């Protein structure tokens, strides 16, 4: 089955700097790659997603890149703010009515 | 977006008792729902896939007789933790992916914080 690796597990950045979180996946059939932000005790919140027919997607300060050949995708957050501090998860799925497989998460701390 | 509602949001029960968690899709039909468990400071781990009108599919290592799943309608799946023990204390969360919205997005319930004492 699918296996998703996520790095780093923790990341501290100064406010205003960029943060990059990387994930790799194992199943070449996976075609949907979402990123979630989760605050303590809350459900995951989708912040951006990308499908396998697209190499990059951007939404304001957040961008995701996908390299299908290498089977890795990355989350980029620019101009970080203290409110960006949270746990971020990447995930992958084959699409359709199949479950998401999550990475282990990255705890991002933005230091003011 | 679609709405998935989960109830209760938190529950405390005594060791040995059973707890039922409900997951409802409010504005779409969900032939399949997914149940995840999340221990503190860990990721969401898939426990089982709930299929309307048929048996659930459990992930390796998840006891099907302990975690009973029923998906009797197109909008409701339930997870019953039977004979709960302190090690079952966790955050349980359901998810569904609408087939008719033209999106691959998964929608999550609010989650249920189970504490077994």
Query: What order do the helices and strands of chain A follow?
Result: EEEEEEEEEEE
Strand count of chain B: 11
Q: Radius of gyration of chain B, rounded? A: 14 Å
What structural category characterises the helix and strand content of chain A?
mainly beta
Structural class computed from helices and strand pairing of chain B: mainly beta
List the helices and strands and how they pair.
The complex is a heterodimer of chains A (112) and B (117).
Chain A: E1 4-7, E2 10-14, E3 19-25, E4 32-38, E5 45-51, E6 56-59, E7 62-67, E8 72-77, E9 86-92, E10 101-102, E11 106-111
Parallel strand pairs in A: 2-11
Antiparallel strand pairs in A: 1-3, 3-8, 4-5, 4-9, 6-7, 7-8, 9-10, 9-11
Chain B: E1 4-7, E2 10-13, E3 19-25, E4 32-38, E5 45-51, E6 57-58, E7 67-73, E8 76-81, E9 90-96, E10 107-108, E11 112-116
